[in-house]
Design brief:
The structure is a homodimer. The first copy, chain A, is α/β, with parallel strands linked by helices. Chain A has one domain (2-193): 3-Layer(aba) Sandwich (Rossmann fold). Chain A contains seven helices and seven strands. Chain A has helices at residues 11-20, 40-49, 62-73, 77-91, 113-123, 136-146, 162-172; strands at 2-6, 25-32, 53-57, 97-99, 126-128, 147-153, 186-193. Chain A has a five-stranded parallel β-sheet, with helices on both faces. Chain A is globular.
Chain lengths: 196, 196
């Protein structure tokens, strides 16, 4: 069975893909707002993991909607949640089984139990979160046994997280995204695997 | 790393053990209230899965406490939850990593996010629920690819679920357990594996 995994190139989505690949034919999917955006580091991470990789483009206007939500609420959580829901919805058009790297400790993006069930019923798909039952300590331990990773702040590390493009959009409009996003939000990027 | 998995011999705990065994040295642990209780079907399931199997006995008086809780509330949920917590606590004395077969769709036993975090902090352990991120449809699909299973009602199938011994205790006191437990509660028992 094929499974479409939302993929940022980072630790969690990569580990989710690795764990899932033992039972599913994993395909990695990275969403961008701008169809012209290049993601060489994410492409490299996908190549290293050895799974097929697709770049999907969000519907036009979503980036502006996300930026507007962040401006009006003053923080990014609702916008990130909304964008993640759009990604899952788009992915469910191409796969009967979709997955992401959501962890037990995550706050956002995180669908509630009822949201997940409604979503699955509506889209006739299965939504798997392979890391949901793993506490952070075990995710880190498993990641260190399977993956070589670099870490850094969002502003320095070019992975396929939604945040980077949203930050760029603020910057393009002359506004400092730093006032909306928490400081020292560490991202990760896969740069190698560890053979078992 | 060793992981102690709560094991009933049924589908969910067996599948959780199989998935976890790819990254941990799994040991199966079945809890009984009565140290003299024999569990040949569970022992057989453990042998089939090929993981070490231990029988652990709950502290004296727990069965009576569970029965009393069920009598006073009129339904078994709180008692099952309490017994499950005791099992996790006992297990955490022997392992730094403990696990069970809790699924995303389960209502009871199910620890909340806060309970899990407190428990892990208190016991300095990791509590993994490998199936938590899998919807029922995918659990069933994975189980059918890894395991041969028979299904039946609790009253007919002798697995290592807490419910059987609690029912027996009601019966021993001349009371019909049927009035407290939902009818047609289907249990499962592993009787073989499917080679990949």
């Amino acid at each position: 069975m094929k499974a479409g995994v939302l993929f940022s190139g980072g630790k969690d989505s990569s580990l989710a893909a690795v764990l899932l690949s033992r039972d599913y034919h994993v395909e990695l999917n990275t969403f961008v707002f701008d169809a012209g955006r290049r993601l060489p580091a994410v492409e490299n991470a996908a190549r290293i993991l050895g799974f097929p990789w697709h770049v999907m483009t969000f519907e036009q206007g979503l980036l502006e909607r996300a930026v507007e939500m962040i401006r009006s609420s003053g923080y990014p959580n609702d916008a990130i949640q909304m964008v993640h829901r759009c990604a899952l919805l788009e992915l469910s058009r191409n796969y009967h089984v979709i997955a992401d790297g959501t962890r037990f400790d995550d706050r956002v993006p995180m669908l509630t139990r009822d949201e997940v069930q409604s979503f699955q019923d509506l889209r006739h798909c299965s939504y798997i979160r392979p890391l949901l039952g793993f506490p952070r300590r075990e995710v880190d331990s498993l990641a260190s046994r399977h993956l070589r990773i670099v870490c850094g702040e969002t502003s320095c590390l070019e992975n396929g997280d939604y945040e980077a493009e949203i930050r760029d959009e603020f910057r393009a409009s002359g506004e400092d995204a730093g006032k909306y996003f928490p400081a020292f939000h560490e991202q990760s990027l896969v740069i190698g695997t560890i053979s078992q």
